[in-house]
């Protein structure tokens, strides 16, 4: 595991891994042992993700070169997570990077976005998108502050 030190007023990220010594916020790749904390964070968003489900997902996604899960920690306690996935674009060169979940406590989302952008860039993503429910206007404003704009519409169907 690699971490990097940055001052509070800097937005520097190397390979998407950052360390903010002043606030003791560390972003790092998720480990299977983070499953319970991630499940509890996802419950805050209304997801019924059990610790067992998250453990299984971590065990599947951690070895995948197309997926990455980062956590943010304060004093070694997980206070945020973000899940990232890449897809080759059919109609254009490069890869699409998609954020499919992000949940944080205490306003440390920017550190997770920095980690995501660094990883997406390192794996050749030329376009990034985020999936966020219509009922989360605060999240939409947060993503807009980080350069995400409405681009098309996603339609879904439960099976």
TrEMBL record:
Keywords from the named record: Acyltransferase, Transferase
Gene Ontology terms, MF aspect: acyltransferase activity, transferring groups other than amino-acyl groups
Stretches assigned to the N-acetyltransferase domain: 25-159
InterPro entries in the cross-refs: Acyl_CoA_acyltransferase (IPR016181), Bact_Acetyltransf (IPR050832), GNAT_dom (IPR000182)
Record bears the keyword Cytoplasm: no
Protein's UniProt name: GNAT family N-acetyltransferase
Organism: Paraburkholderia guartelaensis
């Amino acid at each position: 595991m690699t971490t990097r030190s940055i001052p509070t007023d800097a937005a520097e990220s190397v390979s998407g891994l950052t360390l903010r010594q002043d606030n003791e916020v560390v972003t790092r790749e998720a480990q299977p042992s983070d499953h319970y904390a991630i499940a509890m964070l996802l419950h805050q968003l209304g997801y019924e993700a059990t610790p067992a489900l998250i453990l299984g997902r971590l065990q599947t996604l951690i070895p995948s070169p197309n997926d990455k899960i980062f956590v943010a920690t304060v004093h070694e306690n997980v206070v945020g997570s973000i899940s990232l996935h890449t897809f080759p674009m059919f109609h254009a060169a490069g890869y699409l990077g998609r954020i499919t979940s992000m949940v944080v406590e205490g306003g440390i989302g920017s550190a997770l976005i920095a980690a995501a952008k660094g990883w997406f860039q390192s794996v050749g993503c030329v376009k990034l998108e985020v999936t966020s429910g219509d009922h989360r206007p605060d999240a939409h404003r947060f993503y807009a502050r980080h350069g995400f704009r409405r681009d098309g519409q996603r339609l879904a169907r439960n099976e």
